[in-house]
Design a protein that fits this description.
The structure is a single chain. The protein is of the alpha/beta class. It has one domain: Rossmann fold (3-Layer(aba) Sandwich), CATH 3.40.50.300. Helix content is 44%, strand content 13%. It has a five-stranded parallel β-sheet with strand order 2-3-1-4-5, with helices on both faces. It is globular.
Length: 199
């Protein structure tokens, strides 16, 4: 998306990323969790945040419910609006990462091009995490019966039913949350973070 504003100058900050890393004891970045509704994004990001916080990380969660209630409250669920929602979420994640935080971003983000846009917004600290639970497993977990309502035509443009989900082609990490328990997934992710972000 091209910037419409023309009178923009770049500010150079007095606190560097290296200084932030030294102070916090870890590198900044974003774990971008993508997968179908019901794959575990919200549960995993919240529990992982708690575990990492206890381990001394400066960590924040940016998820779809949070962004939709505020930053994207003016958007619907058309293809265009979903793309704009992910663009905003990517920029928000990038801002937090540049402030030295480890960001856990949980979004269905069904389109590869949108996820690539988020990667560019965050920069080199972006890690795409694909939660690969199958549609059948996700639907079986669906206490709100969203899949059932979508199949009945009550929810238009529902990802995995009436709208596509483009599977990541080369994510940094794939986790089958249809096989692993939440605790096993969190343990795997804590180890992944320690290997990739601890300075």
């Amino acid at each position: 998306m091209k910037t419409k504003s023309t009178n923009i100058t770049r500010n150079f900050h007095l606190v560097t990323q290296d200084e932030r890393t030294t102070r916090s004891g870890h590198r900044a970045g974003a774990l971008w969790f993508t997968g179908l509704s019901g794959s575990g994004k919200s549960t995993i990001t919240e529990q992982l945040q708690s575990r990492l916080f206890d381990n001394g990380y400066q960590v924040s969660v940016v998820d779809n419910d949070l962004v939709r209630r505020g930053l994207s409250s003016d958007l619907g669920f058309s293809h265009e609006d979903r793309t704009e929602n992910i663009r905003r979420a990517g920029e928000a994640s990038g801002l937090l990462a540049r402030a030295g935080r480890l960001v856990l971003s949980g979004f269905i983000s069904p389109y590869r091009s949108d996820r690539e846009g988020a990667r560019k917004a965050v920069g080199e600290g972006f890690h795409e995490i694909y939660l690969s639970a199958s549609a059948e497993i996700c639907e079986n977990r669906d206490a709100e019966r969203l899949y059932e309502k979508a199949r009945a035509g009550l929810i238009p443009e529902f990802t995995g039913v009436s709208a596509p989900y483009e599977i990541p082609q080369s994510p940094e990490l794939t986790i089958d949350t249809g096989v692993l328990s939440v605790e096993e997934t969190i343990a795997l992710l804590v180890d992944y973070v320690e290997q990739n972000f601890r300075s």
